[in-house]
Amino acid sequence: MIDPELQQHLSNDPNGLTTYEFMANNIGTLGEDIIWLVKNIINVDRTGQFVVSTARYLHAIDHDKYAECIDLLVKAAIVKDRERVYLRDLTASLWGPDYQDHAAELALASDNFRRIYKRLYPMGI
Q1: Three-state secondary-structure class, residue 43
Q2: CB neighbours of residue 123 within 10 Å
Q3: Which of 35, 41, 53, 88 has its CB surrounded by the most CB atoms within 10 Å?
Q4: Angstrom distances, CA of residue 125 to CA of 15, 99, 118
Q5: Alpha carbons 85 and 107: distance in angstroms, whole number
Q6: CA distances from 51 to 19, 83, 89, 93, 101 (A)
Q7: Helices (H) and strands (E) in the chain, counts
Q8: 66: helix, coil or strand?
Q9: What one-character DSSP code corresponds to residue 55?
């Protein structure tokens, strides 16, 4: 369990960087605390930068183990990254750099992919 004082400190994180760094530095010992950290990043990150970075990081480490967290982060990224600054990198990280070649299949398999793709390419698949 994360110390209450540390939780308070991380709750005041101005943009998600401090929470992201804490997660990255302690990933091997977080256990169930990772859910709280993910929710905190979602809460404090206004632009989606650290939401996307965290999703990419967790996917790279173990996408099966962190699937629930990644799903929460991707859903938040779709909402937060209004300028579509980070969504392209997220899409390539999660579904591969050739995701456009398989967009129709991926859209059928993943609602998150479909929503991101629609945001990036409003004209459709």
Answers
A1: helix
A2: 5
A3: 41
A4: 33, 11, 8
A5: 21
A6: 10, 14, 12, 13, 26
A7: 8, 0
A8: coil
A9: H
For 100-112, the three-class secondary structure string (H helix, E strand, C coil) is HHHHHHHHHHCHH
The answer to whether the pTM exceeds 0.90 is yes
The Cα 43–Cα 15 span in angstroms is 9
Residues 43, 10 contacting (CB under 8 angstroms): no
1 pLDDT band, cuts 50/70/90, is confident
**AA letter at 38:** V
Tokens of 78: 């779709």
Domain range summary for the chain, segments of one domain joined by +: 4-120
Can you tell me the mean pLDDT for 77-85?
94
